[in-house]
What we know:
With 257 residues, the protein is an all-alpha fold. The protein is 84% helix and 0% strand.
Amino acid sequence: MTALLRPIGIALGLLLSWQLVVWLTDAPRFILPGPLLVFDTLVSQFPLLMKHAGVTLIEILLGMLLGTGLGLISALSLITWSRLRRWLLPVLVISQAIPVFALAPVLMLWLGYGMTSKVAMATLIIYFPVTAACFDGLRQTPTGFLQLARTLGASRRALLLQIRLPAALPAFGSGLRVAASVAPIGAVVGEWVGSSTGLGYLMLNANARMQVDLMFAALLVLAVMALALYFSVNLVARRLTPWLDESTSSATRGNTP
């Protein structure tokens, strides 16, 4: 019950603070609309918001799928082939010196203004956190596990899939949580650079027409989508590593006087 009341209390506190700022500053509605006005716009423009939210959601999910898949394959390749690791790892590190957002116009030029460029943007922003987290988890497999498996005659493939990969699941789950947090950013930035649909396009269009209440409503829908995606990924990550919850519960019970 407490777990349910806490987020409700936080949401109510944020809404009250928002309304208090509107009252104290007496800001005009085209600068800072109140939460009641945004909620009214959310209800009246709900079909329009859902139409654009559906496009953004597809871009985010496809980016998550591609970025996670490519990141996992890259991490497994890096840990398996040392020669590839010597060449690819520096390239991955150097690539992070280039802001991903700076590539958005280039992606628009190469891939067009359709969904493909936005999915590519989301994939790029997701790829490195997943690759880095999974690779670190694979590298940090306990040496005792590997030595015991080799003693029992395990092959390299068995060591990778049955020892290293399960041991790396907690780190992989952390990478997925980071990916879920940044995936909406990649999709929306791509829509800001150039698109005709999506929540990013709707926010820019509403801002240009001084429809700030609609812009806030679109931002609220995006925030709800991002939170739903994060908690869904967090649930999947916890299901993949049930022993972590058990160890945490045991430690908590042990520290209870």
